[in-house]
């Protein structure tokens, strides 16, 4: 627990932490770029063999006994018999299947597997000792596994513990909420949408406004859904439900805030962003979104929920897609600041949030702060203005970067800018006549040089004069539940 909760903090900040780095982990590559068989660790008895040959990894002479080869979970329980209970039989089947491919294909696949496994082990070994640990070597995080499952997926009653955990974390938040997600659809959109995560955010913001509390919600989602959002129904319908949730319609988040708190400055409490980048192809400037696929919630730099669940009914209700997530609280507490005042945070949530915001805002010292050898060192590296997310100057800096980046993209894309196009026809017409700006143009280079990081304003008015809702024919052919 934290000081703000008026309970004693039993975890001292001077807990010894293992600071050993696996600096002596070494890897060598042969001429084909394939990692060799061994990684040399701290001692000779820790030499690990990573590279194996699939063709010789199965010994048909070894016959497993029933109990020894039963698939068991971490708690010792028998897992469902999804695969063959005999791993030798399963592996031999895979071996026979692989033999059907051309030898060149097999060799190429083998090299990819070797490299992937070697890299995985190298990364794990390199970072294992850098994670904060207690004196006995155990980790400092408390973790709860969450699920969205039902009878159809695992044969049990419906469970929506991911949704419940999101709502609980939002309700109990003190200072701020940071969200990254691939989708953002909630009950505000109507049409039978049930999950109440966006509505929970509205209620928490209203409570903060009425109590005159400093409170902020930052949401990062894709610029637009993946796929053809001009002609394909799926992307357009997803856009409809997202805009209906956020700022279009009488029940949207923005409209509710305006009605229930007429004098509220919404931008001070709630703001939406996307991630964008640019490149050069044949001396022509090309702009594109960085598609947000993360499913992350960070509350007060104390709680993290991360997993596979999108913010929509498909992921949250447990009746459709099956999902898994973990809720993390770090018992290793460190002192930060919030709204200019001292604020105790968990090391892992705080570090993760800083890493993401510094990355999005284009901080050059990004790699130096996440999981350093000593967590005290982290704060010596931090000179960025975005540490204190509630400080007006800090948030103004974040907003300035996002707004400037958006202006540059708007200038480069001109008529087909997502900040200008109100209809699909307008976008298509601009796209047909669009001429990519030349990177050789000094003015273009100067403009692009103003971009810092990848954060940009999410286009709240994109296609605002377009009816993106599913047509009668679409509703007749495809159930609404497919979209959200």
Describe the structure concisely for a colleague:
This protein has helices spanning 87-98, 103-128, 151-154, 161-171, 197-210, 233-246, 253-260, 266-269, 313-316, 347-361, 375-381, 392-413, 424-432, 442-448, 472-477, and strands at 38-39, 48-49, 141-149, 159-160, 176-180, 216-220, 270-281, 284-289, 296-299, 303-307, 323-330, 333-338, 341-346, 455-457. By secondary structure, it is of the alpha+beta class. It has two domains: 38-128, no CATH class; 141-387 and 470-482, Endonuclease, Chain A, CATH 3.30.870.
Task: Describe the protein in words.
34% of the residues lie in helices and 15% in strands. With 484 residues, it is of the alpha+beta class. It folds into 2 domains: 38-128, no CATH class; 141-387 and 470-482, Endonuclease Chain A (Endonuclease, Chain A, 2-Layer Sandwich), CATH 3.30.870.10. The strands form 3 sheets. Strands 3, 4, 5, 6, 7, 8, 9, 10, 11 and 14 form a 10-stranded mixed β-sheet that branches. A hairpin with an 8-residue loop joins strand 1 and strand 2 (48-49). Helix 5 runs parallel beside helix 7 (253-260). The model is unreliable at 6-88 and 366-385 (pLDDT under 50).
């Amino acid at each position: 627990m934290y000081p703000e909760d008026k309970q004693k903090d039993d975890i001292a900040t001077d807990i010894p932490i293992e600071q050993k780095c696996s600096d002596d982990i070494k890897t060598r590559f042969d001429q084909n770029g394939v990692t060799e068989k061994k990684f040399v660790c701290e001692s000779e008895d820790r030499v690990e063999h990573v590279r194996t040959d699939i063709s010789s990894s199965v010994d048909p002479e070894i016959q497993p006994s029933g109990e020894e080869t039963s698939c068991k979970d971490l708690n010792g329980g028998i897992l469902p018999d999804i695969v063959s209970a005999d791993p030798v039989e399963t592996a031999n089947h895979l071996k026979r299947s692989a033999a059907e491919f051309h030898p060149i294909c097999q060799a190429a696949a083998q090299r990819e597997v070797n490299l992937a496994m070697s890299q995985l082990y190298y990364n794990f070994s390199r970072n294992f000792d850098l994670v904060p640990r207690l004196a006995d070597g155990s980790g400092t995080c408390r973790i709860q596994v969450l699920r969205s499952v039902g009878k159809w997926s695992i044969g049990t009653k419906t469970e929506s513990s991911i949704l419940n955990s999101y709502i609980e974390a939002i309700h109990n938040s003190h200072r701020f909420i940071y969200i990254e997600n691939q989708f953002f659809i909630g009950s505000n959109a109507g049409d039978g949408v049930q999950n109440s995560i966006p509505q929970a955010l509205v209620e928490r913001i209203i409570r903060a406004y009425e109590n005159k509390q400093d409170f902020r919600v930052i949401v990062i989602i894709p610029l637009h859904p993946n796929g053809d959002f001009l002609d394909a129904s799926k992307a357009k319908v997803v856009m409809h439900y997202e805009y209906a949730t956020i700022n279009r319609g009488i029940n949207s988040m923005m409209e509710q805030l305006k009605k229930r708190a007429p004098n509220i400055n919404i931008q001070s409490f709630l703001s939406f962003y996307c991630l964008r980048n640019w490149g050069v192809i044949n001396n022509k400037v090309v702009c594109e979104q960085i598609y947000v696929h993360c499913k992350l919630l960070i509350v007060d730099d104390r709680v993290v929920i991360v997993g596979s669940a999108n913010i929509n009914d498909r992921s949250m209700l447990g009746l459709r897609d099956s999902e898994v997530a973990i809720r993390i609280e770090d018992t290793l507490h460190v002192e930060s600041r919030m709204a200019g005042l001292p604020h105790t945070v968990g090391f892992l949530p705080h570090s993760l949030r800083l890493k993401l915001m510094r990355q999005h805002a284009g901080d050059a010292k990004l790699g130096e702060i996440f999981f350093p050898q000593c967590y005290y060192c982290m704060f010596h590296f931090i000179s960025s203005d975005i540490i204190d997310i509630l400080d007006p100057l800090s948030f103004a800096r974040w907003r300035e970067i996002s707004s400037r980046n958006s202006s540059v993209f708007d200038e480069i894309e001109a008529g087909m800018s997502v900040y200008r196009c109100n209809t699909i026809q307008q976008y298509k017409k601009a796209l047909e006549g669009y001429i990519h700006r030349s990177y050789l143009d000094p003015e273009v280079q100067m403009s692009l040089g103003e971009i810092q990081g990848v954060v940009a304003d999410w286009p709240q008015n994109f296609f605002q004069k377009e009816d993106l809702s599913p047509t009668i024919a679409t509703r007749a052919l495809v159930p609404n539940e497919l979209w959200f």
